[in-house]
Amino acid sequence: MKIRIKGNSVRYRLTRPEVEKFSQEGYLEEKTEFPGQILSYALQAKSGINDLDVDMQDGKITLYFPDSEKETWYNSQRVGYKFDKPLGEGKSIFILLEKDFACLDNVDEDQSDNYPNPNAVC
Questions:
Q1: How many C-beta atoms lie closer than 10 Å to residue 66's C-beta?
Q2: Which pLDDT band holds residue 100 (cuts at 50, 70, 90)?
Q3: How many CB atoms lie within 10 A of CB 82?
Q4: Which pTM was predicted?
Q5: CB-based contacts of 86: which residues, under 8 Å, 6+ apart?
Q6: Where are the domains of the chain?
Q7: What are the C-alpha distances in Å from 105 to residues 82, 88, 122?
Q8: DSSP assignments along 31-77, one per residue
Q9: From CA 22, how far away is CA 45, in angstroms rounded?
Q10: Which residues are bridge partners to 84 per DSSP?
């Protein structure tokens, strides 16, 4: 699982094994260690919600996902989910959760667990 943050936009990307594990267990978490601090980010299935939600406490970003959708997402062709959460004072945070596709250009990153890119020429 990886995240991309730009301004008030957070994008989570999951490989095939991560989507499968999440569909079974309902939780994933990653950590990035800094000197004296840890940034962690998690994806957590939650009952009683119909859309994505997000929270941040003590250096941990938690993206909540409807529990009723986790197996459906794994077994479907659906790429992802998006949500714009109002923060007040005219501000919001945009959240995007996606299956991670293999890049079309050459990168030095292992992409063997990524979903096949639908734009790849085979």
A1: 18
A2: confident
A3: 12
A4: 0.81
A5: 92
A6: 2-99
A7: 25, 40, 14
A8: EEEETTEEEEEEEEEETT-SS-EEEEETTEEEEEEEGGGHHHHHTS-
A9: 8
A10: 94
